[in-house]
Amino acid sequence: MAGELMPPEGVPLKLRIAGIGVRIAAQITDVAITLVASGSILILFAALRFTDPQTLLAIGALLFFLIRIPYYVFSELVWNGQTLGKRLMKIKVVSHDGGSLTTHALVLRNLMKEAEIFLPATLLFTLNSATPVASGVAFGWIVIGLLVPLMNRHRRRLGDLMAGTHVIHLPVPVLLKDLANEMRVQTEKRKPYAFLSHQLDHYGAFELQTLEDLLRAQNSPPVAKRNRNQQATIAALVETIRKKIKYADTVPSKDNLLFLRAFYNAQRQHLEQRQLFGDRRKNKHHVMEDDIS
Amino acid sequence: MEQYDLMRSARFRKEREPEWRRLEALVSEAETRGLHNMDFKAARDLAAYYRQATTSLAIAREITLDKALLEYLEALTARAYLSVYAPQERIGSLIRRFFLTSAPQAMRRSWLFILLGFLCMGLGALTGFMLYFENPAWFHVFIPPELANGRGPASTTDYLQSVIYQQDPDSTGLGAFATFLFSHNTRIAIFVFGLGVFLCVPSVLLTFFNGLGLGALYALYVDRGLGIDIGGWLSVHGVTELSAICIACGGGLQLGSAILFPGDRTRIAALQLAGHDAVKLAVVASIMLLVAAFLEGFARQLLQDLSGRYILGWGVGLIWLAWFILGGRSRR
């Protein structure tokens, strides 16, 4: 699911919202890290005989508390909205309004984490049948805390709502080759397939980009069995396109890919040109929409 | 002569690709090494190329249908945006700013709410005190048995005195420190702050109830002629700790009143605005609770002298007050 973020430059960015699962995974990682840190200090204390065995548990709880609060706030400050767990899961806190993350927002969302996650979690450990009311309250609290992110589009928990933040998947920029250029290399020596303008009026951007995905998939190394299926798919596709656009000549099966590439180029050029003139064609249904209006 | 001219969107890409590649390198440098450690030229280029990339993205959305290119530009611009608009403040300066200016200023801005917090506690204490003298059985209502530590209207005066002046203090201060912090009062402070969102009511009630217990305990000792001694015993940590609860209550009230009386804003917006000061109050309260735990864990055992206890407790209280009143004032 994509959410929009409006940076000060005024060009909206589409960023994928991190779901509940990946955020819980990051949270578990962080809890493990802080637990290990506080556990090792506790063992050190015990070895140096700072404490009685009776108070060991209380001191452990205290250490965990004292380590985790600054851990979340400071790591998100230093790594720009990422704790170690979030780095591992490649997710990140961003400011909901597109500005930069403020210290206030990070402190607030992590203090609310205490009230939303850790306090009910400790209550959960104390659940028993002797105190049904308290147990019920703790359970209801946890359920509500978990439901809040599910109720809104950006999967924001209460702390996110108050601090004005949400969590996204970190996008990975990978620039693939331009298919239009590849075409030029391959067809330099041959007479290309040519299309007439009315033949290109059938499809829209969605079909074009689906074709793009398919053509890119051809570049990946083929597996024997998949290869045979692909051949069949491509042959069927060529046939469908030919019928739809009423392309009279038959295409020899060894030229199938070449035909598709040529069609991709021609179609893209055509659609981009239409778009420049204000005629955006989302998909093949654009013809019908025009008729209605 | 080339057999095919490149189409417009492919030319667009070809012209700008080197800049995008450079931006990609700069972004990964900023992400791994941090913006602070980049040299001036690189940091300047990062900002400049980022703005060019946003322009490219805006144009690309209009003129090209190349999905790969659109996705790349989208991701690249987002990454660059995140590293250009990263928080720039160092942790050291952040902590210094909190203690020197923003915390005391927030305290002064929300003086009315804090006063209300103290009022809740004070009225509670007064009520508890009066009710005890009406009927000592109230003691058991206000003070849960695990907190009373065996004290009650039935216990002997000697026992009551022995709790205050321990002959063999706990051997480990640290243990007492830790157990204290997770005891009653910290939990109260957290609840008092957090539940303020629910229209102030739980905060007021909890603080008042906390005051009731305090008043009843004090009344018990006054009843046995030990009023001054319990005052000293409570002063050591109580001045700091009870103030912390009142301040937490003030923060909670601030949140609740934002929801009750949002003024011209929407309730969410009012809550977010009130949150700015309320969070600082909560952080101040938690620091005070830590200090109180330290005082209770160590100082109260070491300091058995009555006047010493008064001086220490109220002295620390004065330091807090001085911080809140004098801190963060601009020099003229």
What does this structure look like?
The complex is a heterodimer of chains A (293) and B (332). In chain A, 61% of the residues lie in helices and 6% in strands. The radius of gyration of chain A is 29 Å and the shape is elongated. Chain A has two domains: 2-169, no CATH class; 179-292, no CATH class. The longest helix of chain A is centred in the N-terminal third of the chain and has 28 residues, at 20-47. Chain A has 293 residues and is mainly alpha-helical. Chain A has helices at residues 20-47, 56-78, 84-89, 103-125, 132-151, 158-163, 179-186, 205-219, 224-245, 256-276, 286-292; strands spanning 2-5, 13-16, 91-95, 165-169. Chain B folds into two domains: 8-84, no CATH class; 93-326, no CATH class. Chain B has helices at residues 8-33, 40-63, 67-84, 91-109, 111-134, 138-142, 145-148, 157-164, 173-181, 184-194, 201-223, 227-260, 267-302, 306-326.
